Amino acid sequence: VAHEVASVQAAHPVPHFSSSRDAHDGMSASRVIVIGGGLAGLSAACELLERGCNVTIIEKEDNLGGNSSKATTGVAVPGSYLQAAAGVADSGADLIADEGEAAKRFVETGSEDANWLMKILAVDSELVLRLTPGHGKTARTIGTKTHFPGAVLTYALIHLLQEVAQGRPDRLQIISSARVTKLLTAGTRVVGVEFSREEGPVENLKGNVVITAGGYAGDLEKGSLVAKHAAKFMKFATTNDERANGDSITLASAVGAGTANLDKVQLTPFAAVLPGQADAQFKVVVSDALAGAGGKLIDATGKRFCDEMKSAQECAEAMARARAPFRLVINAKQAEPVHWLVEFYTQRRVMKKFSSVGELASVMRVSGSAMDPALQGSGVLYVAEVTAALYTCSGGLNAGWTRDLAGKVLNAAGQPIAGLFAAGEATSVPFPKLWSVSGIPMLYCIYSGRMAGRAAAAAVPTNGSVVQSLREIMGSAMDKPSNGIKPTNGAAPEEKKPEEKPLEEMTTEELIAKIKDLEANGSLRAPPADDGPKGITMEEVKKHSTKEDAWLVVNGDVIDVTKWIPIHPGGEQAVVAYLGQDASDEWNMIHKAGTVEKNLVPEGGNGPVLKGKLGGAAPAVGGGGGAAAAPTGLTLDDVGKHNKESDLWIVVNGKAYDVTKWVQVHPGGVQAITAYAGKDATDEWNCIHKPGTIEKNLFPGNPNGPVDMGAVSGVAPSQATPGPPLDDDKPAPEGNGGIPGILGAIIFLAFNVVLMLLRTIFFTGNLVFKFENNRNGTIRSACFLLTFTIVHVAGNFVGMIKGPNEANGEGYFFDRIAWTGGLGLVKDSPLSVVEEYLALALLLHVSVALKRSWDISINYCLNTGRWNMLLSGLTILFFLTVHLADIRFSSQMKYTMLRPPPYFVAWPGVLEGRVFYETDPSIPLQRVRDLYTREVELFKDLGTCALYTTCIVVFWCHMLIGWKKLVPADALQIPKDHVKNVTYLGWIAATAIVSMYLSVVWYTYYAPPIKVENVP
User: Fold this and answer.
1) Which tens digit of pLDDT belongs to each residue from 728-764?
2) 843: which residues sit within 8 A by CB, 6+ positions away?
3) Which of 36, 246, 338, 821 has the fewest CB atoms within 10 Å distance of its CB?
């Protein structure tokens, strides 16, 4: 989950002026320009329209809604009409203590503005009163029953405004994907804006200006407003996206606007720590409605550390004094009023379900009895790991509050700047304590947006227009002419062609004339071969954008929802807001995978009807074969626009994927994906991954996985995926495999390593008529090599400590089974079957590793870290060559006599530490290699010790890096909850191995040698 809700796309193509001259004519006298399409800007636009002004909304993103669309809790409204209907008298007096006159006025009159907006939206059936933090025991926050409140309110409002823009382009224009670069002035008065659309020329637009472009808590870069004025908060992540970058302050400051309280940045204690994204700069917010329903915040000890019903700032401050990690815990009974939220978060792994407090305690590694009493006996628990993160800013532009200055932007001297107004988080809020109370920022957006709209309307002539409700304006848009103003796209009016008679109604003469005409124009030639259904373009979908003819796109499927709208369980508005659009993000946010397929009906039925693929093949009828894919309208240029880590697409096998959320959890690291941001990564992808990998990880099955955005024209088509490759292991199990804690980690580690050894290094899928870079070759060989290394180092260590007989006896252990070499068929084989298998494992490991490095790492710079395994591996290969020449195949090897155990191991001497030689004189002596003396000769040389030490340390690094890559691999099948512990166990083992190897080297260097009697 990267964002709680998807951004809103425009439901209809809205007309806009193509030049400053067109923009000036006919509207400038009463036009007001609203910069920003969040809740404050949309509220200001509604107020301006009702007061007779013409409005242009300029939004820098593709979609309206802003950060407001992500609001997860609701709008706090003391004295709302919902409270009145419920018989609740609420003055909000508890909110305004010690906050001053501005807070008092805000609380006392804010309900009027909220009620005004709710009346416009007409979404009463979806609203509900909730208890949320900061409001004591008073349920005054207006939330929604089954959707995020921010999405419901902004989507409904956007839909209404788009209807106005569609029917009355003389009254309202919406310009998206356009950035305001400058406020135009005449003297000290603001008279318009300079802006540019994506890759377009600079344009000017005249009119008074309302700035509502949000706050600055989304920009944590060096030189940002947070860095300059609130540097202590730079260590926190943020819940704001890149839209909240301080644009409002930058624009207004350039014309002399004053600012205040820029150091006032608010934290939330409910920022979710998603699996694998603990260090992510962006965090999503868990709705504090869960705390209002009874959720408890606990620290690493399992104890509560604050009163969750206090304000967000107070809880965040308490969090700073407590011990991380922190968790928000709610039991099943408490979750009933907010069950939709809990289900949503659980499906997307923001929350995790535990059967009991004991199971949670086990994961936290604390005693069940030590858990907070409030959690004891709670039954099923839902838990989210949370942390403190930047949430909102209460500092900003200095805007007036008194009757004469209300909504106006003030300069440093406190005087209003003519023609400039502001609202929402762009302004400085005079009640920072109240600001951190749940739902208050949303109310402030409505309140200040309407206030700025009133002030801006009063400053422009409205040609005598009276106040008219937005609903009435929408009604008039159905039949009122648009005053001749039309979109200027340079196209000539389409000429209507005369209708042609049906063939059956033509006379003989008319038929003959028709045939001659067709022959003359070549129309009687055989039609070209049909390439199959071409699918449906986005342009075609946009034509079906009314309730009477309603199409939308979900996950690449074009669906006719005309007859489904009246019976949609989530209400009409949830569907109507996306007519003619791609609704995939919103759909996947709310619904389980497979929901749309489950509800599909045949043509004519009362449900969604599948019309075909977006830009692809039409659906097969009656189970027929698929047709060839066709272009979708997405091009490489479209993909190239999404080339930032915060908005990242790539192309793989002809399809575009949004990997913004996946990049943070990609097993191969961030760099492996960002290197191909906005590009075709097909060759690189197929070089590294087995077929089906991206499909296996797709959203929504994987909440943080890549999102399929559709086919891309002009690039390599999707590859046909053959049957599963030999190494196509099933994904590792979720959870802890039924055995929690460190015990489970040890059991699964031992079991799966043994399983890897039993599977052998054969049949790994690397030699299939050609040499492949299949990862199984390195995984299985690594398991065997590590196992042998442990045995080898243990033998060396014991042999050196115990003396010559033990060291030489261990060497003879392998020499005496040399007859097994070549499967016993080669007489006088120099190597045993164990050594041959070891050599094959090493050969496979090295060759596959080199092949993978050549295919993958060679494309990266050294500083990316992608060469670490290759370089360390080559160092180890050099070391092994030297070591084998020094010991196993040394020409300077001496010999001695030893009594070897008759049955390979001296069983009677095991308990006394004697394993590989006997002391019984009845056992005959045997000539053996004097490995002990050879090692003494080597390691009495300081240079040799230094060389061995360096290579052993490199080997240690190689093991640490490789083990971290190996453990989460599907082939090893370690349950995901144990991956961390198994990684640590492997690192401990690697450290022990290296310590013993180094001990052998330096013990031999410093210890006095034992004299060994050699023989010829």
Assistant:
1) 456 666 667 778 778 877 888 788 778 767 766 555 5
2) none
3) 821
